[in-house]
Amino acid sequence: MLKRMAVGTAVAALAAMALQVHVSAQQQAQQGGAPARRAVGGTTAGNDAYPTDEQWKNSKEAQALVSKAKAAAGNDAKLQSRFEKACTVLGPQRPAVLRQNAGLPAEPQRQVDIVKLFDNFYFFGFNTVGAWAITTNQGIILIDSLNTVDEAEKIIEPALVKAGLKPADVKYIIVGHGHFDHFGGAPYFQQKYGSKVVMSKLDWDMIERPNPNARGPQANRPLPKRDVEVVSDNQKVTLGDETITLRITPGHTPGTLAYYIPVKDHGKQIEILMLSGANITPDRASLDAFKKALDYAKQQKVQALINGHPGLFGDEIGWMEQVRSNPNGPNPFVLTTDEFAKFADIMKDCAEARLVAMDTKKTATN
Ligand SMILES: [Zn+2]
Fold it and tell me: DSSP 3-state assignment of 290?
């Protein structure tokens, strides 16, 4: 029987600012070396994925959608705080990006000890990026794998052991999108334990193309070898008694994945949604895919949203500490199905608002 486990927090300050390097390297690549106007969290479209502040403020259509989203949040404090994060010109962004834009010094990356978020679902890694383990009756599914092979060996493997899990039981690693902070550790498990790596076909293609902008350790980073390709919406990965449903939500990368994951919360079966690329929707096609992914979540009666990077929609690291210190209390990630449905509508309207604000500019200047 699974018992909720509370393990102590070991917070280790690490010198490496992998995320910051990642963000700024990508921006320079996108902008031909020109200084970045603002940090936008590594989307392939860069600043072009978002309206300018003026477009955002001056688009009546965008602001009408913002007002609609605000009204949907009503006086529900959980929804209000999610609205505040979702309904901005850059949308929900990881704290490191927001700090960079505010001219604040980067927060050091620190390790977060493994935490059991649900009866069969664990988080481990860093405050800036993490990975997850889902336990089944036939082994473990990992979601993402941190930045490097070294981190897989020194962080993921010991974390699994600490939680009483066997690293050799990792049968699948589903990589949310083809950036190194998600696939970096995958080759370690693939080579050592024969774990199968799952990624969208589009992102397999992307990571296997030579990248002329990659420098230093990035250029020589080992890639996982192609095992399983996600090619269509609602494709499943099944291991024992667990089935994860996947959809493709392009925007952050061409084949970023959304996951629908059944978990147990204090013995109760619930469905959670994970968005690997948050909600970056630089064009109509990506916005449509994003909306469909959220509509599907509503249909599946999803109750919690988990992000590839903590901190997009709330104090997710703090929420994890709350779960760790009070494992039998209510889980701060979990909403009612009704609240989640409203949250999904808020995210859709705010993403639509960003796109229509950009469209306004395009029409005006053409
Ligand atoms: Zn990424």
Answer: helix
